[in-house]
Specification:
266 residues; alpha/beta; Rossmann fold; eight-stranded mixed sheet; 10 helices; 8 strands; 36% helix; 19% strand
């Protein structure tokens, strides 16, 4: 039987570990007041801490997020890197028109100006299917893309991987999270579904010079059959059918996702 002293030491060690975990920049960013309760509710499906840990994220890194959109992951990455690392948000340029890309960029810039946690964010221009300098060549430790590949087409994905390879240091990591099209389904029949094949993702990344380092099922969802009336947007958080079969899709949850870690060879 363990002595009282040994039990006390064990409990103290566990408490210290829990405190260190809670005070880490990544955990602090996830728990931060700058994040809305609506966005925090998505943590259940998007597993940000586990996903970034799988990719090897460290607060001292130089990290590029591709097409941040509304900034869901930016809300986590920017404060976690602030003061110790560097964060680039490579987003669509503002062309001064009412296109999706221009409006999305302006909304992101407004968000970055809304809170001090974003004060060190560096926004760069990323134009799909065109060569883009998402960060100075050879300076990034990590390039991340979350649920974006389906937007860009095969040539766009291939070009983005090339942009990422150019930005990364040798040994740098490309992290990909994407809605996963089942291997039994053909992409040409599901181009507007929002899902993308895992095998093809690996092939395109390798073509751009990367090596697959690891796969994870952190963001897998076996309940998702990927055959919904409005594609992936049928599921939460979009719920494109609104009240129609709402409870059914809420019960499924967010999409089944591949989580792939690639490395730029030394």
């Amino acid at each position: 039987m363990a002595s009282t002293t040994a039990l006390a030491e064990e409990t103290s060690a566990e408490l210290m570990l829990m405190k260190a975990k809670a005070e880490s920049p990544l955990h602090a960013a996830v728990a931060g007041d700058h994040r809305s309760e609506k966005n925090k509710a998505r943590d259940e499906y998007r597993h940000p801490v586990e996903t970034l840990a799988f990719f090897g994220f460290e607060p001292s890194m130089t990290v590029v997020e591709m097409a941040p959109g509304g900034g869901w992951y930016t809300e986590i990455l920017a404060p976690a890197l602030k003061g110790t690392g560097t964060f680039y948000g490579a987003h669509y340029p503002d062309k001064g028109d009412d296109s999706y890309g221009s409006k999305s960029r302006r909304r992101l810039e407004e968000k970055m100006a809304s809170n001090e946690v974003f004060s060190e964010v560096k926004l760069t221009d990323f134009t799909p299917r065109q060569p883009s300098e998402i960060a100075p060549a050879g300076t990034a430790d990590m390039v991340l893309t979350f649920r974006n590949l389906h937007n860009w087409g095969l040539d766009g994905v291939e070009q983005m991987f090339k942009d990422a390879n150019k930005a990364l240091k040798p040994g740098g990591v490309l992290g990909v999270v994407e809605h996963r099209l089942p291997a039994s389904k053909k992409l040409e029949d599901n181009k507007r579904s929002g899902y993308f094949p895992e095998k093809l993702t690996i092939e395109l990344a390798e073509k751009a010079g990367f090596k697959l380092a690891a796969k994870s099922e952190i963001n897998a969802n076996p309940k998702d059959t990927a055959d919904h009336p409005k594609g992936v947007w049928t599921l939460p958080p979009s719920l494109a059918l609104k009240d129609q079969d709402k409870e059914k899709y809420i019960a499924i949850g967010e999409s089944d996702r591949m989580t792939l870690k690639f490395v730029k060879p030394e």
